[in-house]
């Protein structure tokens, strides 16, 4: 079974993060400005841009490394507030924010795992070609 190219997965995850932001903003408490709901969308926009750049063969390596860096920051950016709310004892006090954070961690974590796996496979491929 053929898998999707990593740049297309990056673009799809970018669109999913942007959709997550839009949903979060629409569902926000009317008394809140809700601007933090757009944080996943910022990461999604970067996934889109770097994924589109990675469609060009000569930019692929650098663009996908940038995607992996953004994904790592997204995982950390989603996990830190979750862990802080656990430490403060108010985990789940803001269910919408928690949902956005979990969604961001899952989408960015998936992208990071796929990137790391791709980098490992590329290195092994290069080593086999050099040896053989």
UniProtKB/TrEMBL annotation:
The keyword Transmembrane applies. The chain crosses the membrane at residues 7-27, 33-55, 67-86, 98-120. Keywords: Membrane, Transmembrane, Transmembrane helix. This is Uncharacterized protein.
């Amino acid at each position: 079974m053929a898998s999707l190219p990593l740049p297309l997965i990056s673009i799809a995850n970018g669109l999913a993060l942007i959709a997550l932001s839009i949903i979060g903003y629409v569902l926000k408490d009317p008394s809140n400005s809700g601007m933090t709901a757009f944080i996943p969308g910022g990461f999604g926009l970067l996934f889109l841009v770097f994924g589109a750049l990675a469609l060009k063969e000569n930019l692929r390596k650098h663009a996908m490394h940038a995607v992996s860096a953004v994904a790592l920051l997204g995982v950390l950016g989603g996990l830190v507030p979750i862990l802080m709310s656990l430490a403060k004892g108010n985990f789940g006090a803001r269910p919408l924010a928690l949902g956005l954070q979990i969604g961001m961690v899952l989408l960015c974590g998936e992208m990071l795992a796929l990137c790391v796996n791709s980098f490992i496979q590329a290195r092994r491929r290069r080593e086999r070609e050099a040896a053989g």
